Amino acid sequence: MPHAYSQARKAHTEEHDGIRLQKLLAQAGFGSRRKCEEMITDGRVEVDGELVTELGTRVDPKTQQIRVDGSRVRLNPRHVTLALNKPKKVLSAMEDPKGRYTLRDIVGDKYERIFHMGRLDYDSEGLILMTNDGELSQHVMHPKYEVEKTYIATLEGRMSGNVCRRLVRTGVQLDDGWIKLDHCSIIDQSREQTIVKVTLHSGKNRIVRRIFGAIGFPVKRLVRTQIGPIKLGDLKPGSYRVLSSTEVRSLSKEVGL
Question: What is its EC number (predicted)?
């Protein structure tokens, strides 16, 4: 009984007086309480734009903005961000009037107001990020913060390394203008096909398929393996995982939050 009373009193204190800054940082995934105390005393933490070095400081994460090394600390227990491995023949949508399989069929109704950040076309596979954090979603999808994306593409025909280098150096002209790859490398090939790893920032519709189709190497299979700092890893097709606070923080930093 005394334990329950002390827990209730502690919750009451945190609700009305705020939470100790080092505890909040630990909850946000910055490390142990001791490590977070060192970050504060080292002058790495700001509250509402003011440097805070005093260890007793209490903050209200609902009303105050906390930053570590200039990056926003995001702490909302209702917010969740997922990495999902979209199989082929799954629509990048939450519902479909035609009754096709959608992302909703994979994640179900467990998470309130969750939505996908960006798309993959119907026949493409791989990493899609989903969240119910509206601010994060807006930044990830905003053209100003074009996040780097990596794909593994299986192409029809045998393509030379010179073509890869040309796509990075000069690019190719499409109907809506010139586009260049950030990186292109051949990882396997035969007489009939070439497998390449490509990286680019553009979020235009079907952009990888359009680039290689324009130079005579149609894409037979396309898998997105990375978005910014978030990797697909060994996530199985048709499954998803919740991103860690460290991953969400690195993604937020990438898009200026």
Answer: 5.4.99.-
